[in-house]
Amino acid sequence: MIGGAMPDLAITRMDVTDADQAAAIDAFVMAHDEGTPFHRTAWLRAIHEATGHRAMLLAAVAPSGKIAGLLPLHHVKSRLFGDAIVSTAFAVDGGILADDPRVVGRLAEAAQALAGEQGNPPVELRGGPAPGASWAEHRDSHLGFVRPLAADDEAELLAVPRKHRAELRKALANPALTVETGRSDALIRAHYAVYAQSVHNLGTPVFPASLFRAVLRHFGEDADILLVREGARPVSAVLSLYHNRHVMPYWGGGIADARRLRSNELMYYRLMGHARSKGMTHFDFGRSKVGSGQAAWKKSFGFEPRPLAYHSWSADGASRDINPNNPKYQRRIDLWKKLPLPVANLIGPLIARGLG
């Protein structure tokens, strides 16, 4: 056990592979207003299974056995980018999940102690309350985009600002574009092919295919794929997560022709209707970097940005630098775009595993 004050609470490591402990963890996450897909044991297990980054979940537990707070973590190890303890790996949200500031403080201290046991890598918390004065806060790097879903398809169309709505109408009028949703192997392969091409065009290494398969397997019906085809050709695809009546299109993109076809616009619009049919009430467009074209595109789709708060701590003040906007990465990004796609898909996952 790890901890300091508040002797009525014990800070302990939970085993996310134990069925009873996992059920208690997930019940707490699902009941908490600030819970996210990235706090769930499904996410922790999927990341560990697909990338090898060890899952370590800290919980504040009362003498009665009731959970009062959680901090899900992964120990990300990379020769290229360095080690870090992250809440949570490959996520855009997470951080400490607790209502009592004293519990928040205890979990933050436990994370620092855990880092010491693991050789003092930096600790990164993506979201959640401020952990304490010794932690650095970062509010100027990322924006989040969430809004309620409209009542029906027509209302959803009218919620899109006029200029972007005109582009969407062109896609809706294109009889060659069709949409399919599901979790089949064929959809998984098509999604990966589209996503890999999309991130390659941005100069980014693609994640391993095992990551997408693991997330779909562990989330079950709370994750699926929506694919847009032009005739038989896959042109846009997204893997989405469903959590507490929120849909989050998480890993999505389109081939080079998607812009001409407006297939990405169609993809997200059809996802809104699909999510509504599943009982979702909010559309979480995830995060984008401040000043990026992606952030501007989401705003033009009718989403207002809100700053996201991240927190970090390290024993020596050092930190990882995995920001692709750093000038030192620009030449590498330009070179990556020039790699043949099969080569990029072969070596990309080996690099992307370390980004966490």
From TrEMBL:
Residues 162-299 form the BioF2-like acetyltransferase domain. The lineage of its organism: Bacteria, Pseudomonadati, Pseudomonadota, Alphaproteobacteria, Sphingomonadales. InterPro entries: Acyl_CoA_acyltransferase, BioF2-like_GNAT_dom, PEP-CTERM_FemAB-rel, PG_Glycine_Bridge_Synth. Keywords: Transferase. Pfam families: Acetyltransf_6 (PF13480). GO terms for molecular function: transferase activity. The keyword Cell membrane does not apply. The keyword Transferase applies. It comes from the Bacteria. This is GNAT family N-acetyltransferase.
